[in-house]
Amino acid sequence: MAGIFGFFDFTKPGKGVDADAPPKKPFFLFFELVWRKLSRLVTLNFMYFIICLPLIFLVYFAFNEGLGLFQIANDLMQNQPPPLTEDGTPAPMAPGIPGSLIISIFSSLPTGVVYALIVISALLFGPATCGFVYVLRNFTRQEHTWFSDFFVQMRKNWKQGLFFGLVELAIVFLFGYNLLFLKQTDLFDPSLLAVSKYITIAVALIFSFMHYYIYMMAVTFQLTARQILKNALLFAFLGVFRNILVLFLSAVMVVLLVLSTVLLNGLGELIFISVIFLSFTGFIGVFTTYPIIKKFLLDKLEESKNELEAITDGSETEDK
After folding, report:
1. Are 2 and 11 spatial neighbours (Cβ–Cβ below 8 Å)?
2. pLDDT averaged over consecutive 10-residue blocks of the chain (320 residues)?
3. What is the DSSP string of 2-71?
4. Each residue of 93-137: pLDDT tens digit?
5. DSSP codes, 265-309
């Protein structure tokens, strides 16, 4: 059976693109591609969601614990099960709390299993993001991509993906810890904590700008990790307006995710994040930032290639 209801069949050819058609404005092209690739975006979202789910739980857990929205941390650390309903099933978290259903599911698991899943997810995060961005990049370039490309790119970019993923998770951890938990300690001077907070915010902001460039370069070019980070830092400033736009639109998607929590409770939030949130937000980032990669790397490489071919052709003519 090719796919499930058409959602898992990446071998199915998409609608062709008229080569003679005039180029569309980016805004209209984006939504045309979203509609044309919708089933594949759903499939990609689900695959990426499954891999990242333990990390998503950890983010929700830390966020709610840092803000003091619930006291589940002590219960989980002491391996105490959550409260049970009359029929013996784990009681759901309070309505309106972000990630309530996801947290309830993970809190019902043994602590060792939760830790193991988080470690596995952390190790797979970077390579999976390489596969994720590769598929989205091909959607942006209107190139065909196969279901297997996600996993092929995970394997091909395993080392670099692992490195970048762990670096990114470390920055997210430091950012979250600094903002949510460090303020609760009396070990540091308040002024020093304020400086640390602003430095952490600046680093996290710049790295969020670098995010899509890092993984796009990893799956597009044969570059070292140092070269990728150097170029990504440069693009964070060269494409600053596009990067701010991506940050703003991503924030809008997060607001919609929060609203799904408030209005539809945990189930609506879980459906939204598992079906379309990750791939749609990712596609916004890749579609918006890819022109920077094309302008400063791909087009330059093409110009250099043409110049080299012209010199080679000239030399051959002189030999004749």
Report:
1. yes
2. 43 50 81 94 96 93 68 47 54 61 88 95 97 96 88 96 95 80 59 76 90 96 94 95 95 88 76 94 96 91 72 57
3. -SSTTTT-TTS------TTSPPPPHHHHHHHHHHHTHHHHHHHHHHHHHHHHHHHHHHHHHHHHHTTS--
4. 555 577 778 888 898 899 999 999 999 999 999 999 999 999 999
5. HHHHHHHHIIIIIHHHHHHHHHHHHHHHHIIIIIHHHHHHHHHHH
Between CA 292 and CA 72 the distance in angstroms is 44
Q: Which amino acid is at 121?
A: S
- 3-class SS letters over 211-265: HHHHHHHHHHCCCCHHHHHHHHHHHHHHCHHHHHHHHHHHHHHHHHHHHHHHHHH
Q: Which residues, in sequence order, are CB contacts of 163 under 8 Å at separation 6+? A: 126, 225
Picking from 294, 268, 297, 301, the residue whose alpha carbon sits closest to that of residue 142 is 294
Cα gap 114→47, rounded to integer Å: 19
Alpha helices in 67-157 (DSSP H): 72-77, 100-107, 111-140, 149-156
Q: Taking the CB of residue 309, how many other CB atoms lie within 10 A of it? A: 10
CA distance 15 to 142: 10
Q: Is the dihedral of CA 103, 109, 110, 116 positive or negative?
A: negative
The residues near 113 (Cβ < 8 Å, ≥ 6 apart) are none
Phi/psi at 38 (5° precision):
-55, -45
DSSP state of 186: S
Q: Evaluate the CA torsion angle 96, 125, 165, 111 in order and state its sign.
A: positive
